[in-house]
Structure formats: C-alpha cells, structure tokens
C-alpha cells in the first residue's frame, strides 16, 4: 500500500465493545489519578476540580459531588454535541463516580510525595481523558459550557475554560495552603500537556 493511500484512507470506526473497554480503561485511570490527588489534599481544574473543592468543604464524597455537578451540563451537551455524545459522556461520568467511590475504600497511600504525585496524577488522568476522547466520550462539565458560550457569544472556548480554572484555583487558596495550590497547578499543566501533544486530529484520526 502506498503512502498516499494510507494518508487518505478513512479512519476505522471503533466497535461497541472497543468503546466499552475504552471507557472502562479511561475512567479507571482517571479515578485512580483522582484518588491520588485527594489523598495528597490537592485540587485540579474543570468540574472535577470543583467537585474536589466541594468535597473538602462539605465532607461529602467526590464521586457523589462529581455526578451532581455535571447534571446541568447534559442539556448543553445534548444541544451542542448530540445524543450519542451526551449518552457516552453521561456513562463516563457515572462510571468515574462509581469507580471513585470504590477507590476511596480500597486504595490507601501510606506515603506519596506531592510533587511526584502531582506529575503522576497528571499523566494518568491525561491518558485516561485521551482514551475517552478517542472513543467519542468525555467527562462533561466546563468544556461543554465553553463550547456553548463560544457559539452563543463568540468568546473563545479555550479562554472560557481558562477563566473558570483561574477562578477555581483562586478559590483553592481559601481551602488549601498556597504551596499545595502550586503543586496542584503542576498536575493540571501535565494533564493539558498530555492532551495537547497526543490529541491532534492532524496526526491521530482514528475514532
């Protein structure tokens, strides 16, 4: 087969079984990463970060709060992304909520350096999100809102997400010590680097 044929051939679609294993693997990686994060007392961005901060303030579990925080965004997802994406996202959010509850009961870290932990959290969660994106799913939340705001008001989605995260990390200073906020930022940066480098339509076209 020639290089030209390879470049122009349509991407093969994932089967339902492939999607299922992808969603399982992606949400498990994210759940384990978030268990590391909360064990260190750190925070992250987007709706997951909001759920983490609320869990510190209220004492409620991350899994329950993450599921509840995402509920309002499904209406936007249905309007902006369609039924298939919304159902996949709902399933991923529900799975992450359940896996987070399981991880909280079964996984205990005796010692975890926060600098290393933040990097490993970022790598695991970024990889998990990458898997979900490749299978047409997501963990919902602010990304959907950002796309809606972009369509409705013309504000760039990336700036909307950045603004939300800046507000979130500013609020984190009221919940955790400043050094831990900086360590949390390290994890958030690693997540975005993993996605930025590996989730590129011009290089990776399989869906």
Automatic annotation (TrEMBL):
PANTHER family: UPF0750 MEMBRANE PROTEIN YITT, UPF0750 MEMBRANE PROTEIN YITT-RELATED
Subcellular location: Cell membrane
Keyword Lyase: no
UniProt keyword annotations, A-Z: Cell membrane, Membrane, Transmembrane, Transmembrane helix
Signal peptide: none
Organism listed in the record: Histidinibacterium aquaticum
Bilayer disposition of the protein: Multi-pass membrane protein
Residue ranges crossing the lipid bilayer per the database entry: 23-43, 49-77, 89-109, 115-133, 153-174, 180-197
Name of the protein described by the UniProt record: YitT family protein
Pfam families: YitT_membrane
GO cellular component: a single term: plasma membrane
């Amino acid at each position: 087969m020639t290089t030209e044929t390879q470049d122009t051939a349509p991407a093969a679609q994932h089967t339902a079984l492939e999607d299922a294993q992808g969603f399982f693997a992606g949400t498990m990686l994210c759940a384990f990463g978030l268990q590391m994060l909360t064990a260190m007392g750190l925070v992250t961005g987007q709706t997951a970060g909001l759920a983490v901060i609320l869990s510190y303030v209220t004492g409620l579990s991350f899994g329950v709060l993450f599921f509840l925080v995402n509920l309002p965004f499904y209406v936007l997802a249905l309007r902006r992304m369609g039924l298939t994406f919304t159902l996949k996202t709902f399933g991923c959010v529900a799975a992450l909520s359940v896996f987070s509850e399981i991880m909280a009961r079964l996984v205990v870290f005796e010692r975890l350096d926060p600098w290393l932990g933040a990097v490993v959290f970022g790598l695991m969660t970024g990889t998990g999100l990458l898997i979900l994106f490749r299978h047409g799913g997501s963990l919902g939340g602010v990304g959907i809102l950002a796309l809606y705001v972009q369509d409705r008001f013309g504000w760039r989605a990336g700036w909307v997400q950045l603004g939300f995260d800046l507000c979130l990390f500013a609020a984190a200073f009221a919940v955790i010590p400043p050094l831990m906020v900086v360590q949390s930022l390290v994890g958030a940066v690693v997540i975005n680097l993993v996605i930025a480098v590996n989730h590129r339509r011009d290089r990776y076209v399989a869906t």
